Amino acid sequence: MIPNRPSIRPSRVLRAVGTLGLATLIATLAGCGGGGPNPESTAQAAIPVEVAPASHQPVTANYSGTATLEAVGDAQVVAKTSGIILKLMVEEGMRVEKGQLLAQLDDDAVRNKLAQAEATLRKAQAAFDKSEKGIAKSLIPRSDFDRDKFDLETQHAVVEGAKIDLSYTRIVAPISGVIAKRSVKVGNLVTVNQTLFQIVDMDPLQAVLNVPERDLGTLKPGQPVHLRVDALPDGDFNGTVARIAPVVDATSGTFRATCEFRDTTKTLKPGMFGRIDVVYDQRHDALVVPRSALVEEDGESAVFVIEPAPAKKADDKAKDKDAKSKAKAGEAVAAEKKPDVPLFVAKRRVVKTGYSESDRIEVRDGLKDGERVITIGRNAVRDGTEVTVITPPQPQAQVTAIAKAQESGT
Questions:
Q1: What is the CATH number of domain 62-70+200-284?
Q2: HEC profile of the chain
Q3: Which residue has the higher pLDDT, 100 or 145?
Q4: Average pLDDT, stretch 381-404?
Q5: Which of 50, 90, 343, 363 has the most CB atoms around it within 10 Å of its CB?
Q6: Is residue 86 within 8 Å of residue 104, measured between CB atoms?
Q7: Residue 29, pLDDT score
Q8: Residue 158's pLDDT band (cuts 50, 70, 90)
């Protein structure tokens, strides 16, 4: 026989399960602390940022553009008569002066023509002298005298033309400069208008900027300019604005500003490409901040200034103390106390900006000297956001120098 077992009622089972679930819920709530947020987690919610102080520094206003250097004097030396080159006196890269002999053409044929023209001239001169004596004594008609006089004048012109042709056999420099290119060799037969040499005058060099018409009133002749050439290791050169075009190009809406550079080192070359800054104003004591601190939105410029966070009230401190006393029961090891980090509040400040130079920008209104503005992390904050200031890492060279100084001190 199977012994009788005590019967279990369903109602008792449900009551037992309900009691167990409620106990578990209470234990869970107790373990969570239930006292509100941990103040340390609130401090950690502050946004880390880097800041920089507003300070008085000199700042310049300039217009920047790019241009190609051009030689002021650039002459193509061409042959004015045909002939064979007998001598070359210069080579590429040589400095020449205006009127200096560059090459000599074969001049035998031209000298022969000159000799014939001079002989004919002497004959015409003798005929004219005879006619002049005859007309004085009324021995010849007036028409014969006029004819001999005309022949003499014509032959004078022929002789002068032959002399000019002879001078064309001497190729001379039309300007002073440097031989940039030689296009012929000794023995070549050249023809009229054939290019023989290219001479460039590299002192000074010029660069033309196409400036928007809105800057027509700011650029003036004589203003200093600064040129940077990437192709040169020490590619910084100073110059001036030589002239400003009096008209604006209707198609592009720009005007031409010609800048002039005198390079005593002779390192600048025509054709080099560079960036030009035209300085048109300068402030020696301007309040400036890093450009990275500026926020452009809603048609206005603003910065985020940090201010000390307001002190907590007495009731807030009491709540924090009560929250700490409600830590999880049974926690074996207390959390290590972290050092207090000063808290600040970011305040949005609308500013009026002025000139900008490199990575700095002038603030004319809305900011005071010494106030610290957020430079890194400004996109993550809003007006009233709590922030902590972090120190940017020092450059490796500075860290090494500090370490050496400490070693030497010990």
A1: 2.40.30.170
A2: CCCCCCCCCHHHHHHHHHHHHHHHHHHHHHHCCCCCCCHHHHHHCCEEEEEEECEEEEEEEEEEEEEEEEEEEEEEEECCCCEEEEEECCCCCCEECCCCEEEEECCHHHHHHHHHHHHHHHHHHHHHHHHHHHHHCCCCCHHHHHHHHHHHHHHHHHHHHHHHHHHCCEEECCCCEEEEEECCCCCCEECCCCEEEEEEEEEEEEEEEEEEHHHCCCCCCCCEEEEECCCCCCCEEEEEEEEECCCCECCCCEEEEEEEECCCCCCCCCCCEEEEEEEEEEEEEEEEEEHHHCEEECCEEEEEEEEECCCCCHHHHHHHHHHHHCCCCCCCCCCCCCCCCCCEEEEEEEEEEEEEECCEEEEEECCCCCCEEEEECHHHCCCCCEEEECCCCCCHHHHHHHHHHHHHHC
A3: 100
A4: 69
A5: 363
A6: yes
A7: 36
A8: very high
Distance separating alpha carbons of residues 29 and 21, to the nearest angstrom: 13
Give the pLDDT mean for 41-46: 57
Token reading at 170:
């001497």
Residue reference for tokens 């061409």: 78
Q: How far apart are CA 281 and CA 355, in angstroms?
A: 9
- In the predicted structure, residue 331 carries a pLDDT above the cut 60: no
Mean predicted lDDT score pLDDT of the chain: 80
Q: Give 334 or 287, the one with higher predicted confidence.
A: 287
Within a 13 Å sphere around the CA of 175, how many CA atoms are in the beta-carbon half?
A: 18
For helices 108-136 and 142-167, angle between their N-to-C axes, nearest 10 degrees: 160
Q: What does pTM read for this prediction?
A: 0.55
Q: 42-57+286-326+340-409 sits in which CATH class?
A: mainly beta
Instruction: Label residue 309 by pLDDT band (50, 70, 90).
Output: confident
CATH number given to 107-168:
1.10.287
For the chain, give the number of residues: 410
